[in-house]
Specification:
The chain is an alpha/beta fold. The chain contains ten helices and ten strands. GO terms for molecular function: RNA binding; RNA methyltransferase activity. This is RNA methyltransferase.
């Protein structure tokens, strides 16, 4: 049985203040929980008896067999699944030394939790294990970010702080994305670099622009006069840019 106290705890993790106070975050859905469980400490696992019987290898500090109705009352999703889990936040520390030889993503004011989670999922796919975030970015432990990351938040270190300082301390070339930048397909790229992506509406801030060493852009492939959107969604743009960086790296091998 999932008690009222535990339901209250689970639902409280929708709030950043409560997540930070407890050091806990919520994940929902079997696929995400299965993906995160090998990497993080699971404090509480609540699922139907049927789900638990099919997943005996997932360990938690406390496992509760719950009814579908109890899980629905605890869930933050519009269409609850048959399992929820409370995980302990991992402790990541910024270390420029550990980033040597690596491609890194830096996010300047990305505010939509879904975009942030999707970018972290993209980073995981392209073998990027660190995402640097300005203080104004969404919280990676927001339930919407966790859902969008599809488990990648367990493997990718998402670090918050003075973004410009962190970028400078990497000592890497810094590729910033701008609408008026150089065509990425005509630009020399590096696999030991920082890729900076900006806010959904405002792009890269003036302060962060000052540490960018190369301005790049993804060109539109529509001809003049055909009409086109002004820009790509930041998560979609990040995926396309990472793909081109990795393609160049592949060709150099």
């Amino acid at each position: 049985m999932l008690s009222k106290a535990k339901i209250k705890l689970i639902r409280s993790l929708e709030n950043k203040k409560d997540r930070r106070a407890t050091g806990l975050f919520l994940a929902e859905g079997g696929k995400i929980i299965e993906d995160m469980a090998p990497y993080l400490n699971c404090r509480l696992l609540a699922a139907t008896e049927e789900w638990l019987a099919l997943h005996p290898d997932i360990k938690a500090g406390e496992t509760v067999a719950a009814s579908s109705g109890e899980i629905e009352r605890a869930s933050l999703m519009q269409s609850p699944q048959d399992v929820v889990a409370v995980f302990e936040m991992p402790r990541h520390e910024y270390s420029p030394e550990k980033l040597k030889g690596k491609l890194v993503i830096a996010l300047d004011g990305v505010q939509d939790p879904g975009n942030l989670g999707t970018i972290v999922r993209t980073a995981d796919w392209f073998g990027i294990d660190t995402v640097l975030c300005s203080a104004g970015c969404a919280d990676i432990y927001n339930p919407k970010s966790i859902q969008a990351s599809m488990g990648a938040a367990a493997r990718v270190a998402v670090l918050y702080g003075d973004l410009q300082k962190m970028i400078i301390e990497t000592g890497k070339p810094v590729f910033g994305t701008f609408l008026d930048g150089e065509n990425i397909y005509e630009t020399e790229l590096a696999n030991d670099a920082v890729i900076v992506m900006g806010n959904e509406g405002k792009g890269i801030s003036t302060k962060t622009e000052a540490v960018v060493t190369r301005r790049i852009t993804l060109p539109s492939f529509k001809g003049e006069g055909q009409g086109c959107v002004e820009s790509l969604n930041v998560a979609a743009a990040t995926a396309a840019i990472c793909a081109e960086f990795r393609r160049r790296d592949y060709l150099r091998q």
